Amino acid sequence: MKKIQILAIILISAICSLQSVGQIVVRPNFIFINSPEKSSSVTVRNSSENLVEVSIDFKYGYFLSDENGNFRLETADTVENYNKSLLRYLRVYPSVLTLAPEETRTVRIYLNITQPVEQGEYWARMYITPKILQKLQVKKSAPSIEVITVSDIPIIYRSGKVNTGLVLEGISDTQESEGKIRFNTLFRKTGNGAYWGNINLKLLDKSGKVKGSFNKNISVFKQLQIPVEINLEDKLAKIDKIQIIAESKRSDIDSKKLIQAKKEEWTIPFKSED
Amino acid sequence: MKHLLFSLLLVVLAFGMVNAQMATGVAPLTITGAAVGLTIEGLEATVEGVVANTNYSVFWSPEEGASMIAPVVSGAEAASDLGFIIACDPFADVALSFILPTRLLGATTIMPINFTQMVRTEDFSNYNPNLPLVINGGADGAINLMLNYNFTVPKVIEGDGWTGSVVAIASYQ
Predict the structure, then answer these.
(1) Which of A39, B50, B84, B86 could pair with B143 in a Cys bridge, judged by C-beta atoms 3.0 to 4.6 Å apart?
(2) What ipTM is given for this predicted complex?
(3) Nearest by CB to B48, which of A12, A139, A153?
């Protein structure tokens, strides 16, 4: 009897600790709008135990990588081709909302397009910022640091015919050590739309057997350098070539939402160190 | 009575399983190809027991599994974790960027602060929080990051308290 009571207390305590892991949950994580459609929506759920005020803001920006493979979000302050911006058309309702614990609300996104826009893709980022409606307590003679978390959702609008493709510009900085092969891959998108898809890299020996692989979802708005590190299944394996396959499908986005590009396959000769 | 308690236990257990799934945003057998909502929770920090005119470092210790503060001057110094708990799709790449304060503001004084490093608690890997970065969620779709920082306590601290904000921006890459 006593054992069951103790077990019940332990279980209840465990359940209490299994509370939400985030302040808000936004779905979907990517928004694609194809003309003639002019609207979309996201749901915002407050998964915290606090009353939360959520504000929604838009920015123009897209991901890019520098020569070292470091990702960065290019924003309106730095980009040259600002005409890709969707900002001028974007409207949101509501732009500020208050959510009770576990409450979910739908936020509508409208494109105020009154005249046909030039064929192609237009981009923006939606920033969703929750704020707990309880001020951070300032303690006397002590520093306090509050944390503000922002969910960043890309919005892609396609006007008219949009096409895309992927080109492998090259592989550089190849290194082989301790059963690992490292190199950088540089991709560039073609067409008037961004490339959303997946790349699968395989290290093959002379007999064509796979000795290591690497898989990654990608979105290429202009060009993207991806650093690759692959562990060899057999540390003594001699690699003869690198095979790269790119397809416009991702595990996290419905393929119907992606522009279908030609499946690409590249094979690059490689010589393992003796 | 024993039977009743056991039944209650089963109900509580079932509730817990549902609650756990809701908390992680997993809807079993209903979603194909849809991403788990990316969630990011902030851990806010308070540092206590600091002494005037002293440079402190707060760092997350893998040995302790918690943030520590050095040096210990008053003996009452204590720092809570400052960081982020991120839940994402298994093996998803999460792009993160941060806006970090360079000083904390008090009513009459300011406290200079700089952020030196960020530690991922799953594997103790280090990142520079001053640069945008992409981190893979791994098989568990979990990224827990703790910030290390230095600050200088002003010469006069009587009655003052200092605050600042760290902003973290997260998206799927």
Answers:
(1) B86
(2) 0.79
(3) A139
